[in-house]
Fold these 4 entries.
Entry 1:
Amino acid sequence: MAEYFKQDCPLCSSSAEYYWVDAHNRKYYHCPICTYFIVSKRAEALLVEAGAHVREAYAARPRQAPEDHLFVILVPSQSPSSDAPRPSLSGSFVPKSEMRL
């Protein structure tokens, strides 16, 4: 049985709840505004630092998930030779059947 925690949603700041998935590397959120989504710890830290326009853009996406899919926000892996100045966020719809919830 999953242990639920309360925290403000990292996308819209509403009161939400989450539980840990993927060996405590990701949080599975249930927000009354954004609905259900998953965010990695690293992506959540970047969202906190991001501007409101970035969070607002991501906040709309979970509600657009196709049936039996979840919106997942993470930081894509970069090659060691990457010249990117800072990590970027990525969001995609993933079939629930591929997730360990």
Entry 2:
Amino acid sequence: MQPTKSYAAYNDRDDLKPYQFNRREVGPKDVQIDILFCGVCHSDIHVVRNDWGFSSYPLVPGHEIVGRVRALGCDVTSLSIGELVGVGCMVDSCRECSACKEDLEQHCEKGMLMTYGSPDPHEADRITQGGYSTRIVVDRDFVVKVPESLDVKAVAPLLCAGITTYSPLRQWKVKPGDRVGVIGLGGLGHMGVKLAVAMGADVIMITSSAEKGEDARRLGASDVLVSTDEDAMARHANSFDLLLDTIPVAHRMDPYVRLLKFGKAMVVVGITPAEINTGVLSFGRRIITGSLIGGIRETQEMLDFCAEHNVVSDVELIAMQDINTAYERMMRADVKYRFVIDMQSLKED
């Protein structure tokens, strides 16, 4: 067993605190990674606070992991010691169901094995523990290669926020000249803008905060549509080829769906309650659909695309010891646009 330093939630109320546990030994198909950086996702807070009702403790969050290969199992030939790699939201799946066979492991019919908080098949009566830690051991098939040309600290959020927005843009075949609306400018929204612009789309940021307009344009948006301006919303009706809904709180969808052209889709990537009058779907044969991260092959494709177009997240680097303050700031939307933990701070603690 390999002693590992981390920060963990011990319950759903208190701050995260230091926690030491053992990672498993490297098996024949495993990769041991020394973690350099780990992104902080809003989902981390939901799971730490048990907002979704399935959390077990102690719990080490973190599913946006970038590091270097420290050790390889004897059957692993596609990676080398020292190589820069990443781990995202899942670390295994059944690999046998129809979804897995289509490289859509995130939709595994038996349930994907999440990077943290899932029953650990390697350790009885334990859960998987995530990237707020100094090292991790992962099956080779769930490790992606990170292009060395990218800013390493800014890569980590690509493994969740990046693939969450890239996947629907690819699924709905966004192409140069398409008019894409990104609803909400946060961790997901800012990646949606960057990636859609890199695909050649004409991207409009749709936000309730007019003051976000300048930043949206800096990210590449050609225009800003303020959703509380009824006249502006009416002028933009029936004009979008795709909408990406990243809003993280309960909201009504009707005003946004009316922006779609005939037969076009709004993809929801936030997991939150929402309401809609279905008449806006029937009149115009519009579509509302959802999307959940991406499979491993698509995640690798996304990283390679980002390297080609020099796309990374806008990040604020923090020490591991500042994670609780970061959580408080995230709840106030006080970050542009993702926190990333420098794991050297934990190694030196």
Entry 3:
Amino acid sequence: MEWRGFAYIGLWYLSIASGFLVLCCPMTPLMFACPQVFRYAIGVVHSAWEMYPTILMRLLFKTRFVVTGDLINPLDGALLIMNHRNRLDWNFLWAGMYYGTEPKAHKLKMVLKSAIRHVPFAGWVMQMSGFLYIRRRWDHDQSSMADQLEYFKNVNDTNQILLFPEGTDLSRGNVERSDKYAEQNGFPKYAHVLHPKTTGFVFLTDIMKKNKQIDAVYDLTIGYPDSIPQNELDALCGVFPRNVHFHIKRYGVSELPKSAEGLKIWLMDVWRQKETRLADFAATSSFVRDPTSVNDNNTPTHNALYLAFLFWTLIEFIAVYGLVTSTLFRFWCLFCCVVFVGLSFVDDGFQMLEVKLYNYTRNPKKKPA
């Protein structure tokens, strides 16, 4: 174990737990009184937190983030699709979104496996942030995602929703399964990506079009020219990349095919291009040949990142001090944890409770039978 890896994971997790207890849970009454304000406030907290792991990586590991291609417009309602090289891609994504968005503000939510919502604090915060959890039971998943997207529309919450079409990371076993699938269907074998699953992408694109929630699809490609941490244990041991590259391509909604079959073929073609792009990247350690097109303005580190570091360090101090000195705060922490353990296992999670509450109180047509 390396001290920088231990410090990063420890501070990262402490910031999540502290933000959950000190900031997010006290905002819960807003969900009953004014869901629009609640959704906005939680979005602000989450966006502010995303800068914290970015500054930690900059300070502890001097990690450099290189962004090429298009910049993300934070005012776009958008679907983001990205390759899934390792289990920590989403962690580096926060920095990619920070440096790849102009102006530097966004409301990113992810489509994740349902089991992740049970992770103490991290899974609970993502529930409160409105992440879309799926159980891999399609009837259930499409219903819950449709309900959440309709809720976001009703409360005027514009989002960028990230989907990993591959569904899992590029481990050896997953590559073998992808190759077997390619053989059975007459597809080429890939070395740098897995064959994408198209059902979720087609569904999300279609429902977001119907709801007028999508202005663009952003294709993100992540590449690591040096060290690649495959899992959380690698990160704990201090295996961090010195450089992380993102290439972003924006497709306006008018450029997308109209039919479901057309969207399926379109996604598969994007992944073929991604395989080629990553093969070139493996040979050159760059997504572009023209160095002037590289957005490498993250040195020196922006003042906003230092402010985020100070803010979240203060929140961590408040939480730890409260746990040590205040019985009332300890009871508050216990109460919040018990409630979210119950919500995680008894129901579909806080994010669906929020949707059901809104439908029951403000949308009579959606009241449960």
Entry 4:
Amino acid sequence: MKSYEVNFDGLVGPTHNYGGLSYGNVASQSNSQQSSNPKEAALQGLAKMKALMEMGFQQGVLAPQERPDVAALRRLGFAGSDAQVIERAAKDAMPLLVASCSASSMWVANAATVSPSADTADGRVHFTAANLNCKYHRSIEHPTTSRVLGAMFADQKHFAHHAALPAVAQFGDEGAANHTRFCRDYGQAGVEFFVFGRSAFDTRYPAPQKYPARQTLEASQAVARLHGLSDDGVVYAQQNPSVIDQGVFHNDVIAVGNGEVLFYHEDAFLETDKMLAELQAKLGKCGGNFQSICVPRSQVSVEDAVRSYLFNSQLLSRADGSMLLIVPEECRGNERVWQYLQSLTSSGGLIREVKVFDLKQSMQNGGGPACLRLRVALNQTELAAVNPGVIMTAPLYGTLTQWVDRHYRDRLSENDLADPQLLLECRTALDELTQILKLGAVYPFQIN
């Protein structure tokens, strides 16, 4: 039976703004308080989805969340009508209003961790929504994320959904941004690769000194247990604490993997040789041939990697067995990174082609091509069981671009977040979107 890796890209929400909320994310902090363009952001993301679909890749779309999150503000003590809640938050606690308006759910690499049926004990595709406990503005996402994923992957015969891990520091979970999977074929058993920044209980693991390590070993282990993964099908690796302190807040900022290939920076991990040997041995037992591409620090520094988002790229397998790397425009704008990529593709190695996309609106908030997509490996039967409304097609692309044109603003500043009308615009847009994507009632305003 044929199997696929399906990329479900996050649709940028109507409140996309530069709040500078993510400490440890260089781009997010450096562009704080600038005016954003939600319409352009959504259209840039949709253009990438359409392009990948036209290249022959399976492509889906994942809906944004309701923002501002008035219910979250009510839990923090703001009362009255929805408009009054927003007005009082803007007057008394503007940072909380900014957090409640964040469109960060667009980066669906953080939405969940996904294990395909070939790896799990019960033969179903497993989803665990990420608690994103490190940042308040992201920690409020997982209830809606769970409902949206449940509406997309509803057939319990094929799909299993788990609630987010306990929302405490010991189980900080950032989803697929710290997880990838290696396999010879998407439909065959593979090796799931969990990368953590620190251990909550074991002091033998060093921790970063400047920025927080968002993913714990204990969270990764819990997800592996929930998904019914075997010990032979899992490898755990620790991020290098020094690169976290240089702005590598997730593993997908310093490494990307797909199929049998890991593309990573020389400074990405601790005990790299041991980790590579374990990946090679375990994938070999699955019939695979693990291969790695190490980018030397002498050619691309960690700073260049963070600023260009070289590794926050999509590594895609093509029908002829070669690999395609999808990178942001910022890679072409960095002389050292672009020179490295030219030498990489001209060498006749595993990665044969690089395609560049303009994702400036997302990049300025700290998310590149890989942040915008959640990968789900599905066989033909499972793909047929996915809600068809969320699978990208040419007609759906046209419908969604028209929807964005109708509902999105082309400029948004911090002061605009205090406008109660923005909430009404967002709800009107999302109510229509759930009908377009055939999701049913998934948002709080539709349920309560």
